[in-house]
Specification:
alpha+beta, elongated
Length: 121
Amino acid sequence: MSTAPDDLPQPEPQVSATRDEVRVRRAPKYPVFIFGGIVVGVVVTLIAVVAAPGDDQTPFAQVFGYFVLYGIAIGALVGAIVAVILDAILSRRGRSVEGERTVVETPESDEADQPVDGELE
């Protein structure tokens, strides 16, 4: 148990607020578009491999595995390009608003430098 009183005066925090003009707009999430492009690339590759005539000597899994690498790369690229184009379109639709930044600073008390019971000096 400590013998220090609990009702010590606490320093009042200092609040300062500034107003700034900020630009608000919607932005696409790039990883979602890239992953979506990858999924579309895999599906298109699957359809292309199933629909394409092939010889019976090459197994389906081997052909699909080979071409799905291209489908993933091209799908990710197309998804990223779509995200960049959508970002450019949405950036024009942004609007300016006034925002308030509030900073709260708590001044340090004199007792913060003194050791507390049980604290090493």
